[in-house]
Write a structure and sequence with these properties.
The protein has two domains: 131 residues, Jelly Rolls, CATH 2.60.120; 74 residues, Arc Repressor Mutant, subunit A (Orthogonal Bundle). It contains seven helices and eleven strands. The strands form three sheets. The protein has a four-stranded antiparallel beta sheet. Strands 2-7-4-5 form a four-stranded antiparallel beta sheet. A hairpin with a 5-residue loop joins β4 and β5. The radius of gyration is 19 Å and the shape is elongated. The protein starts with 14 loop residues before the first helix and ends with a helix.
């Protein structure tokens, strides 16, 4: 599918702006596990996902990770170009969870486009508000949900994304998503296993009773 089909505000641009945006966008292919954007040390530009899956996460000074949101086909990410937005100091690292094809729009070009196009400025504000809402939702989860609820929710979400109940996930990877220690994940997964909700084996978690996990998540 051509580049223009991935840009929500494309039809609101002038022909000159459309040509400029097409010329400025850089196509990239990244393998699973690649760091695409490395926090404030990097001002990559606006990311537009063509296909694949990216993960945006925060990193504590101690090196602990917590997933903020995922990016899928047609998603766009502003925080990879936070340097173009005043007064926003938001440390986000972005990595590829699957082999991914994407475009990068240089921050200088996109900033200029925002200044000239009300449609681009409005879309940018909406996208920023949406991402901040996702981060606030995560904060509420951390503050008000118990860890067993968060883990059950994560496992069900992963199962939905992958289309299978047999998940190739290490305890360390789950800990990285949920912002906790591997040992905490291991203890809770063993409890889930004792309750018949999951079956554990090396590098995998198989969901055995999704209804019970959902009841735990929603309690």
């Amino acid at each position: 599918m051509e580049f223009s089909k991935y840009i929500p505000f494309w039809d609101e641009l002038t022909q000159e702006q459309q040509r400029g945006l097409t010329d400025a966008a850089v196509s990239r292919e990244v393998a699973a596990g690649t760091i695409v954007h490395n926090g404030s040390a990097d001002c990559l530009g606006l990311i537009v996902v063509q296909e694949g899956q990216l993960r945006a996460y925060a990193l504590s000074p101690e090196g602990r990770e917590v997933t903020l949101y995922r990016l899928f086909e047609r998603d766009m990410c502003l925080f990879s170009s936070a340097c173009m937005m005043r007064n926003i100091q938001f440390e986000v690292t972005i990595s590829a969870e699957k082999d991914t094809r994407l475009w990068v729009i240089p921050p200088e070009f996109y900033k200029g486009l925002m200044e000239k196009s009300a449609a681009v400025a409005n879309y940018t504000n909406e996208l920023l508000a949406s991402r901040l809402s996702e981060v606030m939702w995560l904060l509420e989860q951390v503050m008000w949900q118990s860890f067993d609820q968060r883990l059950a929710s994560f496992l069900l979400e992963e199962s939905g994304l992958e289309g299978t109940s047999h998940l190739h996930l290490t305890h360390e990877k789950i800990a990285g998503h949920l912002g906790t220690a591997r040992e905490v994940v291991t203890r809770m997964l063993r409890y889930f296993q004792s309750e018949g909700m999951v079956q554990l084996s090396r590098g995998t978690v198989e969901l055995k009773d999704e209804k019970k996990l959902a009841l735990l998540r929603d309690r």
